[in-house]
Amino acid sequence: MAEGITKEEKKRPVIETKLRHNIVSVPEEARKASGIVIFGRRIKTLVFTTDLAIIRNCNADAVFAVYPFTPQTAIGDAVIKYSYIPVFAGVGGGTTHGVRTIGLAKDMESSGAMGIVLNSPIKNVNLLAVSKAVDIPVVITVTSMNTDIKARLEAGASILNVACAGQTPEVVAHIRESFPDVPIIASGGNTPEHIKKTVDAGANAITYTPPGTAELFNSMMARYRKED
Asked: Cα 192–76–36 angle (5° rounding)?
């Protein structure tokens, strides 16, 4: 590398095709995160969706497949099977808990998930049972500044997923004061400004909320109308 040229400034070849060029791109601010190395693969960005069309046309490092319905093995299987990037699969923790959550976690591990994600209401005793049942990272969601992080880690959580809406950067910074080395995934929303603030607070990886299919279609159809 020539003197005075940083690694970041070095040009990176970009390969596209006529049909595969219009992809959903995670804001560059998320790439400033340190990343979390899992099974030898560094994960900096996760796309927060179960939409296979977006998953297959996105440059994120992994998929954060958590959705607001009762987790189903069929949904997790489909996302894992047709995604060409690692998947972190939601397995409940709120309405769905206990033996059912353990079964779902084992199913997702067998299907090839890189990690499983549990919702914040799960009790530590259930978190511990899940962590003992699988041999992949267990991600526990943190939704409050008052969460007992030490107890969550002692119950087997491998990674924290901080999802506190507009307060996410503040909560990440608060956790970092007492747990400087704990792996943290944090919600970055969909704006570069919020993502940068969250990374600066100490998040190792960012979940990115992509535009919806309808929004993506709107811009495409507007372009088509101009071409008519």
From this structure: 45
The whole-number average pLDDT for the span 112-132 is 96
Q: In sequence order, which residues have a C-beta less than 8 Å from that of residue 191 and are 6 or more positions away?
A: 27
Residue 27: what pLDDT?
A: 94
pTM flag (> 0.90) = no
Per-residue pLDDT tens over the stretch 3-20: 555 555 578 787 777 766
